[in-house]
Amino acid sequence: MNDTLKPLKTMEEWKLLEINQEKLAKRPLRDLFASDAKRAEKMTIEAAGVYFDYSKHRVTEETIKLLADLAEASGLREKIEDMFTGEKINLTEGRAVLHTALRAPKNATIVVDGENVVPHVHAVLEKMEVFANKLRAAQWKGHTGKTIKNVVNIGIGGSDLGPVMAYEALKNYSLRWMTFRFVSNVDATDFAEAVQGLDPEETLFIVASKTFTTQETMANAGTARDWLLKSIKDEAAIAKHFVAVSTNAKKVSEFGIDTANMFGFWDWVGGRYSMCSAIGLSTMIAIGPDNFRKLLAGFREMDEHYRTAPFERNIPALMGLLGIWYNNFFGAQTIAVLPYEQYLKRFPAYLQQLTMESNGKRVTLDGRPVDYQTSQVYWGEPGTNGQHSFYQLIHQGTKLIPCDFIAFCKAHHKLGRHHDLLMSNVFAQAQALAFGKTAEELKAEGVHDWLIPHKTFEGDRPSTMILLDELTPAALGRLVAMYEHAVFTQGMIWQIGPFDPWGVELGKALAGRIAPELESQAETELKHDASTNALIRRYRKHRI
Ligand code: G6Q
User: Is the shortest distance between the CB of 501 and ligand 1 below 6 Å?
Assistant: First the structure.
């Protein structure tokens, strides 16, 4: 798919951006604002329910035009169409990439291998709805006749991070008489704590695994089965207490789960892009089918905006391009994601997988090593907590860290002044980062000369203000889709493949070799490197 593209750094648009960066590197944001009274207005886009203010970035209109030109020259427009129409753009796995089909309207047609996939998507959604409604109406009874009150999602990576993030984000929409827990880590602590205080007779496990072979998930599912059967001593109980979300019916059935209680999805849904598929079953149970549909509608709104808006006015495209601007032209290594909304506390963790597993690649799709940086490191915490810990480094440290501020005009809990205080903080942080505080200003305040260097804020720390009305299911959908498409934009420009996850393979294979060596009682000969051999020996000696 990149056959016709020139190597990125030899592209004319890239070279023009390098020249533009040299100019911009010397222009303070104070000047950029002073020289254009309409800057804030011009550099704000309102679309798909998102108010996206990128005026505090170290860019001019010319920069934006050059970035959009780079996107055009990289064939982004055609690639977006390829993705939306089911072309097999995941080349290394030979798959289409169709998370957008998961939120397509019922009357849409998206053909993969000669078949329209949209009716399948809606059939699964309807099956999920019937099941979710039963649980929500307290009609799904456990083996002993007790109402199911607890739902435990067992999955990892893409089969965990989306569900847990969405549950936390939309907790205020969730059924409060039900308990939702999430188990992912193979560390037994995760399982043990997740089932603390739960009555097995009232507990349902959702085993969420695309492949149904993932070591951690299978270990946790096996432990869940033992935990259940220890209390309800009847194998027949599995049918009422376990359901599966998977593409692998054979393995689901081997585990003992009735495939009537399996919710399917397809190989064209990547794990980290799967929260709109049946992987979102726990989300649907928690917030209800109507709200789940609103979540999908939010995704769809952003999908349509991304597919149709010109790149200069296209929120996800610009977001991706601004990331490239700092990553590749300013040498910034990371991006901080700073939601001023406590319900989004797991959002940075979710984004870490979405961004870094997608674009953390070192070769182009046709296998050439890249000679430029690919994905930034994404990290973050909810505001205002971060202000009292790591923001110091963003304000006055030596690293350039572009920030994504995410905030909502309406509060979920209208308690006194809290929301005004929260919002005053997010606006103030973006302002302080951009404009800083000069030595002259400090002097005028009577600050002693020797303290001035310490109290000076250089400014010119860029940030985006992403403002939405309220954290609703639709708003969450818009936000996630915005990042999904920003990641796609970047991957296409970097000429890499964002949809495969080969980087997890080696560790998995080695762990598979080491596990039996740890478990073995016999002193088997170890054939690893000297350090690994010593670690294994030490563990064997000290494990009991
Ligand atoms: C996501 C990755 C990865 C995957 C997990 C779980 O894009 O492929 O995080 O989701 O490894 O895989 P299973 O769903 O197959 O258990």
Answer: yes
Q: Is 55 in the pocket of ligand 1 (CB under 6 A)?
A: no
The residues annotated with a catalytic role in the active site are 357, 388, 508
Show the 3-state SS of 167-226. HHHCHHHCCCCCEEEEECCCCHHHHHHHCCCCCHHHEEEEEECCCCCCHHHHHHHHHHHH
Q: Flag whether the pTM goes above 0.90.
A: yes
Token output for 479: 């936000």
How far does the centroid of ligand 1 lie from the alpha carbon of residue 283, in Å? 18
Q: And the tokens for 346?
A: 């797991």
Ligand 1 contacts CB of residue 163 (under 6 A): no
d(CA 245, CA 159): 9
Contact of 248 with 213, CB cutoff 8 Å: yes
Residue 504 C-alpha to ligand 1 middle, in angstroms?
10
β-strands 50-53, 44-47: how paired? antiparallel
Q: Is the pLDDT of residue 381 over 80?
A: yes
- Ligand 1 atom at minimal distance to the Cα of residue 155: 16
Ligand 1 atom showing the smallest separation from residue 157 Cα: 9
Distance of alpha carbon 359 from alpha carbon 376, whole angstroms: 8
CB-based contacts of 288, cutoff 8 Å, min separation 6: 132, 136, 173, 175
Planar angle of CA 248, 252, 256, nearest 5 degrees = 165
* Listed residue (54, 60, 61, 38) closest to 430, CA to CA: 54
Pairing of strands 377-379, 463-468: unpaired
Token pair listed for 319: 């977001």
CA pair distance 539, 476, nearest whole angstrom: 44
- Residues 240-293 pLDDT 10s: 999 999 999 999 999 999 999 999 999 999 999 999 999 999 999 999 999 999
Ligand 1: nearest atom to the Cα of 357: 7
Q: Return d(Cα 352, Cα 361) in angstroms, integer.
A: 14
Residue 389, Cβ density class (10 Å: 0-12 exposed, 13-18 middle, ≥19 buried)? exposed
346: Cα separation from own chain's centroid: 9
pLDDT in tens, 466-507: 999 999 999 999 999 999 999 999 999 999 999 998 998 899
